[in-house]
Amino acid sequence: MNFTKITDSDVNLELSAFELKSLRNILIQIQGALPETEFQTRVGASLKTFSTFLENIEGFYRTEETPTEISISLNQIILLNNLFNEACNGIRIDDFEKKIGISKEEINSALDKVNTVMNKMISILEEKRKSYIVPPSYLQGSDYNCTLEADGYRVNFVFKKLLSFKESVTLSIILSFTSSKFAEFSISTIPKGVNIGALHKFIKEFNQYIEYPVKDNTDSIISTQIFQSDIFQVQALGRFTTLDGEEYINLNFMISLAQFRGDILRPFIGIQGAITFTNIRHFVVAMEEILIKLSD
After folding, report:
1. Domain, as residue range, for 217
2. Do residues 241 and 221 lie in contact, with contact meaning Cβ atoms separated by under 8 Å?
3. How far apart are CA 290 and CA 144, in angstroms?
4. Number of domains making up the chain
């Protein structure tokens, strides 16, 4: 078992048919020792998911003599790490070498390799994410800012007043994400001038969407383009209500990060997620107050 071309998202794994068979034997032993629900908790994926993963690997093999090189993701490396760890340090396997096909020492060696690769991929990912982090000092000294809070992410609108242009302001948008495994990271547009009237229109359209009564079930799943500019786009992909009566919008929020040439479509990046009507109303009120101040 060897690894090459390690990146933050995937790595090339060289695996022989014999090693693949041993991997399948480990899965069989863990399956026999653990209930299916406990398998998912301890390995990090359902038994069906891991079986499908191995079946996909097996699909690459045409000969048993030559090792096959395949590309696997970080999530799949984490699954391999958990599976090997369970075989070596979790369940008890009597007659280990007979049932698995190789010794426990060899599996421990494979576990060390997988663990090293997993940590290296996570380290590369962390370094990449740090390059996108917007430092808290970015907000310091800004004239005005307001935030749209969502489940798992938030959007900060940061304004600086332009003394020479009463009808325009400088706007930057910071899109911040949260994760259970990694530190929060953010991406930001470059500061750019925008007409205050266009922002008034954005707030008006946003407010009208949440206040517009739903006539029937089909209205709740119709997508609506709320706002579009060369800085950001907002699209509502439908609305829904939870059992406790909380109303949400499934929102697609996109920001422009890259330059574009001529009439080529500007590239955007963003996120789709649920936002409560309550948070949208708070954002609308805050934005309206800021726009009034910026217009003075």
Report:
1. 136-295
2. no
3. 7
4. 2
